[in-house]
Amino acid sequence: MAGRVNDDGFGEALARLRQAQKTAKGVSLYSRYVNRPLGRVLAAAAYRAGLSPNHVTGLSAAFSFAGIAAVALARPSWALGVAVYAALVLGFALDSADGQLARLRGASSPAGEWLDHVVDCAKITAMHAAVLVSFHRFGDDAGEGWLLVPLCFQLAAVLIFFGGLLTDKLKSPAARAGSAAPPSRLRAFALLPVDYGVLCVVFLLLGSQDAFRAGYAALCAAYVLFCVAFLVKWFRELAAPAPPAAPPASSASSTPRS
After folding, report:
1. N or C terminus: which one in the chain shows less Cβ crowding within 10 Å?
2. What is the CATH number of the domain that holds 135?
3. Buried b (16+ CB within 10 A) or exposed e, 128-146
4. What pLDDT does 11 receive?
5. Domain annotation covers residue 245
6. Which residues are CB-contacts of 28 (< 8 A; sequence separation ≥ 6)?
7. What is the residue range of 23's domain?
8. pLDDT in the model for residue 251
9. Which residues of the chain have a pLDDT value below 70?
10. Could you tell me if 105 and 47 are in contact, meaning their C-beta atoms sit under 8 angstroms apart?
C-alpha cells in the first residue's frame, strides 16, 4: 500500500528533484534530455501520492513486461507498435523515477538497488526473447537465420549491463575519483545506439516486418560493436595499476579549530 500523501506540492517536489540529479557522465542524449526529465515528473507525482521507490519499480516492471508480452503474443501491426512503444517508454521513465524518488525521500537502500537491477536484467533478457518468439511465430517470409539476431542482441545487451555494473563495483575508490571528468556531449551522442530508449523507438516499426527487422538488426550490430569496445576498455581499467592514495593530512592541518 502507498504511504500517506506528502504535504509538499508537486512543483516543490519537482524543484527539489532538479537539485538531486546524478551525474550526466556516461549517459546518452536520450536519457539525459528525455528519460531523466520524464522520470523526474513521474517521481514528483509519486512523491506527492506517497508512493515508495519500490512501488515505482513495480509499476516500471508492470508496464515494461506488458509491452514485452505483447511483442511475443500479438501479431505485429502499426497499432501494436505504438502500444508497445508507449508501454516500454513509460516503463523506462518509471525506472528512472524510482531512483530519483529514493534520493528525494532519502530512502536509498541496498534492497531497493538490488530490486531495480534485477528488474532491469529481467527486462533486457525478456525483451529479446519476445522478439525471438515473434520472429518464430509471425516471420513467415523470413529465413531461420533471423532467429540468431535476437540471441546475439540478448548476449551483447546482457554483457554490457552486467559488465558495466561489475566494473563499477570492482573499481577502487581512487580510480572512481580519478575518472570524475566532466560529461562529454560528443560521447553522449555516440552512446545513442546503445540507449534503451532508442531501442524502444524501433518497436514503432512493427507494422512493417521488413522495416522492424532492419532496424532491430542495425541496433544489434551496434550493440555487438559497443560490447567489444566496452569489454576491452573495462578490462584495461581494472588491470591498470591503482592510482596512488592521497597522502595523509599532517597533524597540524588535521587539528580541529577551537
Report:
1. C
2. 1.20.120.1760
3. bbbbbbbbeeebeeeeeeb
4. 75
5. no
6. 188, 189, 191, 192, 194, 195, 197, 198
7. 10-170+186-239
8. 47
9. 1-8, 19-26, 174-183, 242-258
10. yes
